[in-house]
Every structure is written in structure tokens, then in C-alpha cells.
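User: My instructor asked us to take a sequence, write out its structure as C-alpha cells, and then describe one feature of it. I'm not sure where to start. Here is the sequence I was given:
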Amino acid sequence: MEREVLFTGVGGQGVQIASKVLATAAIDEGRQVMLVPRYGGGMRGGMTNAEITIGDQALRALPVATSAWSAYVMDPSYWSTISPNLADGAVVVVNASLFHQPVDVVGARVFEVAASDVAAELGSPMSAGFVLLGAFVALTALVQVDGAVDAMRQLVPSYRTQHLEANERAIRAGALLLPAGGAPAWERDVAVAS
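Assistant: Let's start with the prediction itself. The C-alpha cells for your sequence are:
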């Protein structure tokens, strides 16, 4: 079985690190993973998307998801770059602090998380991407929350270690905002991942 996740946002919101954390956690849990980052010309303020395919067996050739199972949406600015590639009934987790438009995907299961507001309340506004990731991970059980925290700790560069605790708080706070296993990726082992 394979599951695809499309990420979108604006450069500087943590979309790329969030996608790498999810990919790393899935690898650490024994899954097969392909990650394709996509950026616009500018780093901050420009388009930043990523596509992850996670499977329990060897993956086919480099994917271009045209019917993805889910989406992680930090900002509406580049929503149109991924929405046509979502399957009917896709799981869509949006940053409700910024995303205020209809999700134009047939039968989409939309879950709203005020990630930017929660991050500000935690005293770490730059960790909003991790709040949304924690919510996405808990909801889908695609990987375990502890696995996401461990992967984040592996990936944060040495010159940013002062943010590790805030990032962990953000992931764990996000995980409490949506029902654990409410939209499970892996039907057969959701109880283990919750």
C-alpha cells in the first residue's frame, strides 16, 4: 500500500523541514519513502511544495502524484498548485489561521488547525509548520508522533538546536488538536500508531 502527501506553503513557513521530518520518521519506522521538494525562485515568500510517497513495499519509479491521498496546507497562496492532484475524498489538513477558502476537492475530508495561532500561543510563532505536522501525523497515524519528534531532532541543524524544545512542544501540541487516528493511512495498524 502507498500513501501520498502533498505539502504546500510559502517559503519560510517550515514546509520543507516538515516534509523531511515526515519522510525521515517513515523511513525510521521501516517504510519505503520518496520525497520530491519543489520551490519557486525565491526561498522566503515564494512557492514551496513537496511531495512524499510512503509505502510498505518497494516504490515504483519517481512519482508524480496525480491522485494523492492527502495534503498538508500551511498557506492558501499556492493551494492551486496541488489541489488538482488530490484524489476525491482526500484528507486535507489546513492551517486555519491563514486558509479561509473552500477546498475544491470532491468529497475532501478537511481538518482545520489554527497552527499559526497555536504556535504564537506557545511562544514560538516560527514553529507553526510543526504544529500542523503534529496534527497531520496524529490524525493519519502515517507515522507515530514520537517518530516525528525523533526525526525533527535528527534534522534540525546544529546551529538551530536552541529551537529543538519549542519544535517538540509544537509537534506534541498539534497532535492533540485532531482526533488520533481519525483519518488513518494504514487501516490495519492504526491502533499501534496512535
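For the description part of your assignment, you could build on this observation: Confidence is low (pLDDT under 50) at residues 189-194. Try explaining in your own words what that tells you about the chain.
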